Amino acid sequence: MLEDLFHKVKSRVMVTTPDADAHISIPRDIMFKCPRCQKAEFMDQFEQVGKVCPHCGYHARLRAGERLEITVDEDSFIELDGDLKSLNPIRFPGYEEKIAKLQKDTGLTEAIVTGTCRIEGEACVIGVMDSHFMMASMGSVVGEKITRAFEYAQEHRLPVILFTASGGARMQEGIVSLMQMAKTSGAVANHSDAGLLYISVLTDPTTGGVAASFASLGDIVLAEPKVLIGFAGRRVIEDTIRQRLPDDFQSAEFFLEHGFVDRIVERSRMRDTLGKLLRMHRREEGML
Amino acid sequence: MSKQATAWECIELIRHKDRPTAADYIPMIFEDFIELHGDRCYGDDAAILGGIAKFDRKPVTVIAQLKGRNLEENKKSNFAMPHPEGYRKALRLMKQAEKFGRPVICLVDTPGAFCGIGAEERGQHEAVAKNLMEMMRLRVPVVSVVMGEGGSGGALALAVCDHLAMMQNAVYSVISPRGFASILWKDASREKEAANLIRITAKDLVELGVCDGVIAEPSGGAHKNPALTAEAIGTYLHHVLPKLIEKPIDNLLQTRYIKFRKIGVFQE
């Protein structure tokens, strides 16, 4: 115990000195260097465990395709509305170009992929937001795809699972993006009134207008460990109150403690947890 | 009605020190306003003023974001930036209105929901989200009027409604022009340029299909003649409310959903 204390002090001293490792460049595709604990791991090893750091448990951000691969039953995913593309509602300069470049770089059409699938045999509608596409901000397409996903699920009496991630509303679409918060929340309300299950899984980062709309409206709200959740950005709060915030402020654990998250689920247990929850909500003959 | 001012001119008008606040308007528009306090959960947020009043001799629920007329009042009402308990008080009063079958009138005027430690701890995101969902299915008519500043989700949490009106010089935006310039251009001093670019005036919002009607202000802005402005708001509500009250409730809810459902610009 006492030694641990000394170790801690020692490592703190090391942090304040210039980083000795800074000169060693690690090839990105062979090794993964954890942004949290700074330890390195072979990339294939890291990918094999769903991009979770084996040393500190850091859950790296996943691409939508990677998330689907570790979540849904093999060959069960059928995409919905994959051809929806953004236009430029307030004619914001450079917006079309930015979207076109992101489409090329990410291979995605927009910041969310939706579809139907099975998880451990249970049919559901799934949506996965991808922070690699403009920090998964919500504009018209994201709002429309989520709304359609809930409407489809309602029509076919299916549960909805959304993996949320977002910096918030997409500023480049102005007021139109703000209205997507109301629109998606309305779709959640209708699906909910039909007695159907909605599970939201908060992944890194779920903030702003997405946290303040459909992401918080799940019957069950799960979160991956240590992810950032919150209404306002950290810098905005620090500027408002003129003091530094503690490191764990707005983490999943913070919101679990304050009662806004049902459960923190590690990535390796997510599929199994979702499968169990879906089975427990299966509507069977003779149920109340 | 005078010509539509530019976005920046609007911002200067709504920031005018004499611009009337909800506290000025409520006694001029409504009769017998009785304020009701608290969210029954944590506390009472002075940034949101709510209660029951009479309009056209019938009871209505009035919920307003309250700016102060001086520093003292602004300190008390936190410059109209609500905490979660403010939104939860608003929702409590809306559910009360639903139970007793009276329409809800929201007067929106906020720079945004407050950003701070307590606000995050008490779930600002959840409070806003819950209001959006519950207002969408509230079984009484809801009319919202953006009085001055409609700041992002903090405004929307009182503006999921059957009819959205804006004062002629009001603005309503996804983020303040200052925030926009700061985040997208890393330069908050380009606030004015952002204001005129991001389409936030009443006229813009009518064109974008978000705003349903504009209430005229006296030439030079509402502060030039608060009584006349209040009369214009009263006349407007008198025109809009009866039509909403007449509609069968399921029809009204369907129309409310579609009103927001159809907003979005994309191709497929």
Explain how this protein is built.
- The complex is a heterodimer of chains A (288) and B (268).
- Chain A has one domain (61-280): 2-enoyl-CoA Hydratase, Chain A, domain 1.
- Chain A contains ten helices and eleven strands.
- Chain A has helices at residues 2-16, 43-48, 64-71, 95-106, 140-155, 175-193, 208-211, 234-241, 252-257, 267-280, and strands spanning 31-33, 40-42, 78-80, 85-86, 112-119, 122-129, 160-166, 198-207, 220-223, 229-230, 263-264.
- In chain A, helix 5 (140-155) links the parallel strand 6 (122-129) and strand 7.
- In chain B, strands 1, 2, 3, 4, 5, 6, 7 and 8 form an eight-stranded mixed sheet that branches.
- Chain B has twelve helices and nine strands.
- By secondary structure, chain B is of the alpha/beta class.
- Chain B is globular.
- Chain B has one domain (8-147, 155-175, 199-226): 2-enoyl-CoA Hydratase, Chain A, domain 1, CATH 3.90.226.10.
- The longest helix of chain B is centred in the last third of the chain and has 21 residues, at 226-246.
- The interface between A and B is large, with 64 and 53 residues.
Sum up the structure in keywords.
heterodimer, A: 288 residues, 2-enoyl-CoA Hydratase, Chain A, domain 1, 8-stranded mixed beta sheet, two-stranded antiparallel ribbon, 11 strands, disordered N terminus, B: 268 residues, 9 strands
Can you summarize this structure?
The complex is a heterodimer of chains A (288) and B (268). Chain A is an alpha/beta fold and 288 residues long.
Output mean pLDDT of chain B: 96
Task: Give the overall pLDDT of chain A as a whole number.
Answer: 90
- The stretches of 5 or more residues of chain A where confidence is low (pLDDT under 50) are 1-22
Looking at the structure, the CATH topology of chain A is 2-enoyl-CoA Hydratase, Chain A, domain 1
Q: What is the end-to-end distance of chain A?
A: 55 Å
Query: pLDDT below 50 for ≥5 consecutive residues: which ranges of chain B?
Result: none
Regarding CATH, which class of chain B? Answer: Alpha Beta
